[in-house]
Specification:
Elements lengths: L2 H21 L23 H15 L3 H14 L31 H17 L6 H23 L5 H4 L1
Helix pairs in contact: 1-5, 2-4, 2-5, 3-4, 3-5, 4-5
């Protein structure tokens, strides 16, 4: 199987999973003890639009931000869950080595971190102290997956005809 076929299968399965999971969420029974799609609907209603704006603008300028941010999200989630700990920098005088500085994460491009910092700064203007960096990273990774899928569909429409029928 070629690399491009593998990528298409991964993106398609991610899209199907996202679509199925969003259809099965019952928002009338939301108890904020559980994961929900609309967790910030009341506390930061503009969150999704802000993150989508940042990701789409950066994707237009540099499409390489998509895989870099998705990789950043993967590396964050790989070690003890998706907690945003990969975004923490070394503090002067600190004893331990943060995830961001570990050898495995040295090849993640700096612009992946910068996208999340930019989105966080914009979110903080509208909703100070409400949204975690981990959640912004998750939303950005999701948005980049959607942008890549859209780009692939527009670039290779004959390959994706089966999605619509």
């Amino acid at each position: 199987m070629s690399l491009s076929s593998s990528i298409l299968i991964l993106l398609f399965s991610t899209t199907i999973t996202t679509c199925l999971s969003s259809e099965t969420v019952n928002t009338s029974m939301v108890h904020h003890r559980f994961l929900t799609v609309d967790y910030y609907a009341k506390t930061c209603p503009q969150l999704e639009q802000i993150v989508a704006f940042v990701t789409s603008q950066n994707f237009k300028v540099s499409p390489a931000t998509a895989p870099a941010t998705i990789r950043l999200f993967f590396h964050d989630c790989f070690v003890q869950g998706c907690d945003g700990s990969i975004l923490i920098s070394m503090k002067p005088g600190s004893m331990g080595l943060p995830e961001k500085e570990s050898e495995d994460n040295q090849d993640i491009p700096a612009y992946a971190y910068q996208i999340i910092e930019k989105a966080k700064a914009m979110v903080e203007v509208k909703c100070p102290g409400v949204v975690s960096c981990a959640d912004i990273l998750a939303l950005a990774a999701r948005d980049y997956i959607h942008l890549v899928i859209l780009l692939l569909i527009l670039s290779y429409p004959n390959c994706f005809i089966f999605i619509f029928f």
